[in-house]
Specification:
alpha+beta; Hypothetical Protein Pfu-838710-001; eight-stranded antiparallel beta barrel; 5 helices; 9 strands; 27% helix; 45% strand
């Protein structure tokens, strides 16, 4: 699956304003457990390896770059349990690629997500906690870029921004790894 999304970092007040402005279709609590090698070789290649836990179910997910800023390939496989380590062979089978190392769990990031669906686009409004830090982000995932741009304009009006500094902010894994490197 190709994932297309715009992402913006928010401050707490912007997050609260957006929480109040929409009638949300769904609220999801999830935990992302991030995996990589000791020297973070997957991250260096722009690859995210995580196990996402939602409602007690575990999903191994690989996200890989496509060469377009707001698009990534996302692959997924259901797991029966949360592993501490994942062997390279498992990742190779999922990605149909023969160059994945064994990886270990680095830590977790907990997210409370509000979801609002529109024709051709979806808003995911996230509050994430990791290593004692809390941050806020909005993701506009889309299949129709025009719908997403229209939705983005509405969101920017609500949060009081004329134009975003960037349409693809540093993703959760990058923010997580920044804190991870500072701690370890």
């Amino acid at each position: 699956m190709i994932e297309n999304e715009f992402k913006l970092m928010l401050n707490e007040n912007q997050y609260k304003n957006l929480c109040e402005k929409f009638v949300w279709d769904e609220k999801i609590s999830q935990i992302n457990y991030y995996f990589d090698t000791e020297n973070l070789s997957l991250s260096e290649r722009g690859i995210t390896c995580r196990v996402r836990e939602i409602s007690g179910e575990f999903f191994l997910q690989l996200k890989m770059p496509t060469g377009v800023d707001f698009s990534r390939v996302e692959l997924e496989k259901k797991l029966e349990f949360l592993p501490e380590k994942i062997d390279g062979k498992t990742l190779e089978n999922l990605a149909e690629n023969s160059c994945f190392p064994d990886v270990k769990m680095l830590g977790d990031l907990q997210t409370n997500r509000f979801v609002k669906r529109f024709d051709g686009a979806e808003i995911d409004l996230d509050e994430s906690k990791y290593f004692g830090k809390t941050d806020y982000e909005i993701e506009i995932e889309f299949t129709d870029e025009n719908s997403a741009k229209s939705l983005l304009k509405k969101v920017l009006e609500i949060i009081g921004e004329n134009s975003p500094k960037e349409l693809v902010c540093k993703g959760k894994i990058r923010r997580f790894l920044q804190e991870y490197k500072a701690k370890f």
